[in-house]
Amino acid sequence: MLSTKYIFVTGGVTSSLGKGIISASLAKLLQARGYNVTIQKLDPYINVDPGTLNPYEHGECYVTEDGAETDLDLGHYERFLNIPTSQENNVTTGRVYQSVIDKERRGDYLGKTVQVIPHITDEIKSRIRLVAKKNHYDMVITEIGGTVGDIESLPYIESVRQLKWELGPTNCAVIHLTLVPYLATSGELKTKPTQHSVKVLQENGIQPDVLVLRTQKSLNDEIRQKVALFCNVDIHSVVESIDARTIYEVPLLMQKEKLDETVLHKLALPAKSKPELKPWIAFLDKLNHPKHTVTVGLVGKYVELHDAYKSISESFTHAGAVNLSTVNLRYIHAEQVQPGNMDETLAGLDGILVAPGFGSRGFEGKIHAARYARENDIPYLGICLGMQCAVVEFARNVLGLNNANSSEMNRKTPYPVIDLMEEQKSITAKGGTMRLGAYPCDVKKGSKAYSAYGREHVAERHRHRYEFNDRFLKEFESHGMKAVGINPDTGLVEIMENDRLRWFVGVQFHPEYRSTVLQPHPLFVGFVKAAVEYTEEKNQRKNN
Ligand code: GLN
Fold first, then answer.
1. Which residue of 430, 463, 493, 496 sits with most ligand 1 atoms within 8 Å of its CB, as the best mutation to test the pocket?
2. Kind of pairing, strands 188-189 and 182-183?
3. pLDDT at residue 1 tops 70
4. Phi, psi torsion values for 240, nearest 5 degrees
5. Taking burial as the number of CB atoms within 10 A of a residue's CB, which of 78, 83, 226, 433 is the most buried?
6. How far is C-alpha 13 from the geometric centre of its chain's CA atoms?
7. Is 307 exposed, middle or buried (0-12, 13-18, 19+ CB in 10 A)?
8. Quick count: other Cβ atoms within 10 Å of Cβ 428?
């Protein structure tokens, strides 16, 4: 068996250059060549995990099968590689320090002074190696969050330096991603920022093996030569990463630039046969040749930052491709949806998705959107809080339960149709204490959800504290709002569906975390299909 090889991806010049996509694309190419690869993200912040972070800070919190609340880049890793990640795939500075301090309190350091080097760096290194050990990966790609030169990422950079030295040259490769800005006034691409950021790495004792240069314009040989010379790498190790139409094209662009071959060469691994990318290319082909267009309204309260709904928007890309449809997402601010303006704010939509969320800001707007979808029979997908909104709306406006609410929003509501789960009642700490991760769900035959899944037993990922209060179930069901997905172990309601409408589904779980390029999520596929059919019906009506 091959001993694991380690690839590190660092970033320079600015943040948001797409280290996650480059890591995922390289991993995809290596996987397509038959290697067993995973990706890990090291985040420099002191939160133990991003679960307690407001999505405005770093975008959505992604949840793994095993219930870890993680950075959104793990979503890209899963969507590209089609294999699950887990808690070990995301490490934060907070988690590292927490475990070092726990060890210190236990007395594990035997009276020694506990220091960044070696104690923090040892902890970081052991977490990098732990990922490899768990599934005997051929390669682990570790993405270092932040930008080189940041004070807070120094212990990670130092750990990479140590590992590179410990493992030896063919067992470890460092890829540095930087920006080559284009100056429109002089019509030039500039390499100086790259040179400087490589210098910072070198000052920290790391010579990068490969440079990936983000650019708007193609790099000519002269620029590549210049970067190679000044940054101490060979010309084949200067890789262009030009702006792509979609992130899913990046693996093919990286293949053209031979990033995978260059890395394999550094690691003294055979390039085996060509990467098997047929299903990936078939997906891109569908994505690039749509026959339909639908507009879906995403009603949420963090819509100013699209990263807050990353997995949802990517799920629409996957499901759109299956349906040969472009899905235009219209981000709608929940606080702006009011009874007096719904015909304008929600005009022309072919589907409405009410997003997950916490707290009362925007909650009433989401309820109005759910009502609009129900009254106008517009395809509806409610995710987590979006399902809870559909339930509260139905209780108030169909069942006539005045002031019905979720007890999250109003603890004194006379009709808590959504209520705190029993197991949550004694919990006070916020971090990592929700109902998290994958739980089984039995789907009732004959439901819309069942026709989407095509099977009865599924497992979906959760992140919530509140649930449908089944004290009210009979009343809901007798008016057409049915519980069609139930957790077989606990009886918790997982899917509610209005069987009198064309496609109105609310799910307590998060289907968006499981949608991948090669396995688009059935509920998103079903929802987009319903939206396409609805548009066609509207067009036909118009033409008659
Ligand atoms: N705030 C709701 C709950 O905790 C919904 C959570 C969510 O949408 N992820 O149950």
1. 463
2. antiparallel
3. no
4. -90, 135
5. 78
6. 24
7. middle
8. 5
Residue 239, classified by CB atoms within 10 Å of its CB into exposed (0-12), middle (13-18) or buried (19+), is: buried
pLDDT given at position 2: 64
Q: Which of 53, 69, 361, 384 has most ligand 1 atoms within 8 Å of its beta carbon, as the pocket-test mutant?
A: 384
Tokens of 84: 């699950």
Residue from 446, 465, 462 nearest 454 by CA: 446
User: Considering only CA atoms, which residue is closest to atom 6 of ligand 1?
Assistant: 464
First-to-last alpha carbon distance for the chain, in angstroms, is 67
User: What phi and psi, each to the nearest 5 degrees, are found at residue 47?
Assistant: -60, 140
Find the length of the chain: 544
Asked if the peptide bond before residue 118 counts as cis, ω within 30 degrees of 0, the response is: yes
Ligand 1: atom nearest CA of 467 is 10
236-261, pLDDT tens digit by residue?
999 999 999 999 999 999 999 999 99
For residue 33, the CA-to-ligand 1 centroid distance in Å is: 40
Please report the atom of ligand 1 found closest to the CA of residue 466.
10
Residue 405: exposure state from Cβ atoms within 10 A (0-12, 13-18, ≥19): buried
Which protein residues are within 6 Å of ligand 1, measured from CB?
356-358, 384-385, 408, 463-466
Distance 492 CA to ligand 1 centre (A): 14
Phi then psi dihedrals of residue 383, to 5 deg = -110, 125
Whether residue 27 is predicted with pLDDT greater than 70 in this model: the reply is yes
15 burial (CB, 10 Å; 0-12 / 13-18 / 19+) is exposed
Q: 81 CA distance to ligand 1 centroid (A)?
A: 28
Q: What is the pLDDT of residues 161-186, one digit of tens each?
A: 999 999 998 999 999 999 999 999 99
Annotated catalytic sites, by residue?
384, 510, 512
CA 480, CA 355: separation in Å to the nearest integer?
Answer: 23
Residue with tokens 């998060």: 510
For residue 374, give the nearest of 504, 529, 232 by alpha carbon: 504
Nearest-CA residue for ligand 1 atom 3 is 464
CA distances from 136 to 36, 41, 64, 140, 157 (A): 8, 18, 20, 10, 24
CA distances in angstroms from 45 to 266, 446, 507, listed in the order given: 31, 47, 32
3-state secondary structure of 16: coil
